[in-house]
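Hi C.,

You asked whether I'd gotten around to modeling the 301-residue construct. I have! Everything is below, sequence then structure, no commentary in between.
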Amino acid sequence: MNEFFEIYKRNFPFIVRADNTVAYILENKSNKFITKRNEQNRLIGLSVINNDTIILLCVDREYRNKGIGTELLKMSEETILGEGYNEVTVGAGFDYIMPGVPIPKGYFKSENESIYSNISEGAGCFFTKRGYSHSWGCDCFDMRLPLTDFTKEKYTIGDTIDGISYRWAKLYDLDEICRCTDDACMDFTTYYKYENLYNENSSQRVLIAVKNNEVAGALIVSVEAEGAGLGSVGCTAVKRSFQGKHIAVNLVTLGTKYLKDSGMREAFLGYTYTGLDHLYGYAGYKICIYYMMAKKEITSC
């Protein structure tokens, strides 16, 4: 596992994912590993397969363009086909190290960009040439904000803005929060059910917008969950009857101010999609990396 983790870190230094999360994913009992070594038995190429998903595929830079990646991909497809699947997904499966294939450009119109300088078009071109295509009807990306650039400090958590109160959630708010997230985006509800999120001493907490005891919106705010000096916000949800009232923007802005006040160096949000670049852009976040949500149908290899 140490070798697998190290080759991942060498090849994807720009990916924001907690080390313990990556280790947990690599240790999954359903994983299958295909490796390539040099003459000194050093690991230079790796594919990690879980069911119908290639969780990770990488080749060390000095060994690229020598057919190693093509060989690993072909063997991965054969493994997936042999398991009875007829489609391959690259990136997110039972969990994810990264949502998809890292690329520097999106497929759709977007705004608020500041792309990492070390992202090339190579990975996207590699998969495209081998029959893979972007499977989403929008872009997938991560966003980042150096907190020295954050200036939206008019309000703070505990304030009431346009009749909506913004405060930290308590455990007794959970049922009302779930009603909000079920209405806004049911996929998010499960992430709000961890009781530790409602402990005032937790590094991850739930910020809510409340009107007459009704939860209108919710946001998960995390301090150093993905790394030292790095805070994050995510799972933004606003009940449909309250949408259009700037609640999501206020939640994100207040959550980001909290991260800055907590001494975080940067704020990050991951695995998000077209439209939210505008929302998070209000607080100063910019797209730092796009993902090709790569899929391919296979019938024979």
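If it helps when you're writing up: Helices lie at 2-11, 19-26, 68-82, 122-129, 174-184, 247-261, 276-281.

Thanks,
B.
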